[in-house]
Amino acid sequence: MIDRERLAQLQKIQAVRTSLFVFGVLLMLAAPAVGLLPGPGGILVFAGGLALALKYSEWAKRLYVRFKRNHPRKGAWADWGLRRRSAKRREALRKEAREAANESAG
Question: What angle do CA 93, 50, 65 make, to 5 degrees?
Answer without folding.
Answer: 45
